[in-house]
Write a structure and sequence with these properties.
Helices cover 36% and strands 22% of the residues. By secondary structure, it is α+β, with helices and mostly antiparallel strands. The strands form three sheets. It has a four-stranded antiparallel β-sheet with strand order 3-10-5-8. Strands 4-9-6-7 form a four-stranded antiparallel β-sheet, with no helix packed on it. β6 (230-235) and β7 form a beta hairpin. α3 (57-68) crosses α5 and α7 crosses α8 (148-155). It starts with 14 loop residues before the first helix and ends with a helix.
């Protein structure tokens, strides 16, 4: 799948569902805010200029930059200008970006805007329609019109969308909590403390809800507990990770797991010194999305 290829879809919309959704987007004046509707228009105009028959999420994100410029770039890390140039070799900022190039050519050859005749088909792929509905849903929930902010929030809701941005060289500029990847990929977790009452050995089983590759993460805590001075982790008889605070406060290592796994710890530090140990895999859904 190329960087600008189709996104993996949950399910395809039927012809009538798509027609309904596109009609709402194009003709319902209360659906998108005027500014967001203009950004979408810039995207569809650029698609027409570049012979694209359908507007997708990456096209729309490029349209956001053509419309909002620095305001949208503030929410992402990456080279927006390079992305727009790759995705839309023909593009224009300002008022001309709202008029198809073919119409501008007709006008420059002696006609005027009223006499110029040019049309193009407005088609949106399923994922862009879902993104727009998600943005509108977020804005409706707080009683306002959909804006750039709701679009950025909506993009963060689906890993497929943020993955598509990543393939194009963009990431969200802020750390975003991700339940699927932060919680549902956990196979084992233990907050450990120094002291005679805390276990130094544990066991955990591997089930079929999490797939390889597997990683073991060890880090000093972000909580109010004091960090340990040092920690070593043994997995199935082999030392796999160690830290030495403050020089090396975290460690992340690829590991192999068995059906039943034995894990052991060696901690050195102040009373109630603490360290967190997490073993992760890949969720079944995420594994499918990478195929």
């Amino acid at each position: 799948m190329g960087a600008f290829g189709e996104l993996l879809m949950k399910s395809s919309l039927t012809a009538f569902q798509k027609r309904f959704a596109e009609y709402r987007v194009v003709f319902d004046a209360n659906f998108l805010s005027p500014s967001l509707a203009e950004a979408l228009r810039r995207a569809t105009t650029a698609c027409a200029d570049n012979s694209k028959t359908e507007t997708g999420i990456i096209d729309f994100v490029c349209g956001l930059f053509l419309h909002y410029r620095d305001e949208v770039a503030h929410h992402f890390n990456g080279d927006f200008r390079a992305l727009v140039s790759r995705n839309f070799p023909v593009h224009r900022f300002g008022d001309e970006g709202l008029i198809p190039k073919a119409m501008l050519n007709q006008m420059s050859s002696g006609g005027n805007e009223a006499e110029a005749s040019f049309g193009y088909s407005l088609k949106f792929n399923d994922e862009l329609l879902r993104l727009l509905w998600s943005a509108v849903k977020l804005s409706n929930a707080v009683g306002k019109d959909a804006s750039l902010f709701e679009v950025v929030q909506a993009l963060a809701l689906e890993n497929e969308w943020t993955d598509a941005l990543l393939r194009c060289g963009l990431t969200l500029s802020r750390v975003v909590a991700d339940f699927d990847r932060e919680v549902e990929t956990v196979i084992f977790f233990a907050p450990l403390h120094t002291g005679p009452g805390w276990p130094t050995k544990m066991e955990f089983e591997l089930d079929d809800t999490v797939l390889p590759p597997f990683t073991l993460e060890i880090s000093t805590p972000s909580s109010r507990f004091r960090p340990v001075h040092s920690a070593k982790v043994n997995l199935n008889g082999d030392e796999v990770a160690n830290i030495n605070w403050p020089d090396k406060a975290t460690s992340r290592t690829s590991v192999q797991l068995s059906a039943v796994n034995k894990i052991g710890f060696e901690l050195d530090g102040p009373k109630f010194g603490s360290v967190d140990v997490t073993v992760r895999g890949t969720s079944v859904d995420e594994g499918k999305s990478k195929k």
